[in-house]
Amino acid sequence: MSTQEKVLEEVLEKTADQSNNEIVLYNDDVNTFDHVIETLIYSCEHTPLQAEQCALLVHYKGKCTVKTGTYKELEPRCSKILEAGLSAEIV
């Protein structure tokens, strides 16, 4: 392997490591499907179909990853979700 290839691999690994954070949405017995769907469309820029699928996964599985990216990108989105009364965290 040449030095250039090794450096390129290291750069690619660092780039991949920076975007491995996720917003995980958790199920609750308070919010309606419509509210969850509207919140995901607004806060995560989901399509209505994506938001509906995530809402169903949260309902049946208890949690669902709704967005991935860097912590800096996810923090304001997670804040919007929390302000809407949903349970979520960045992991």
From TrEMBL:
Molecular function terms, GO-annotated: peptidase activity
Keywords of the record: Hydrolase, Protease
One Pfam family here: ClpS
TM segment ranges: none
UniProt domain Adaptor protein ClpS core: residue ranges: 18-83
Alphabetized InterPro entries for the sequence: ClpS_core, Ribosomal_bL12_C/ClpS-like
Segment forming the signal sequence: none
GO biological process entries: protein catabolic process; proteolysis
Name of protein: ATP-dependent Clp protease adaptor ClpS
Organism field: Aquimarina mytili
Lineage, broadest ranks: Bacteria, Pseudomonadati, Bacteroidota, Flavobacteriia, Flavobacteriales
